[in-house]
Amino acid sequence: MSLATSQKALWLYRSILRAGTKMPTDNRREWVRAKARSEFRRLQHESDPEVIAFELRLGEVHLESINVQAKHLNEIMGGTLIAEQPAPAERDPFS
After folding, report:
1. How many domains are contained in the chain?
2. Domain range enclosing 65
3. How far is CA 66 from CA 40, 80, 81, in A?
């Protein structure tokens, strides 16, 4: 994996963990954290560039989904929203 790809993966991992903190319950926050950890560990030794590119795109979709779910769940549960993060395309320094 190239340095740029490694940096992108690390950025994505950290972004997913940060987004997970916006979930309204401890259970949901822990699920996001555990799922992110398991997926990144599962793929840490992947060497096929096509698989890596696919998984990074999939991770960006998951990041956006976590942000949307957190916003929605906070609204319906009456919680206070934590400041929204911009969509990955707006924040991604590697695009």
Report:
1. 1
2. 3-91
3. 16, 16, 14
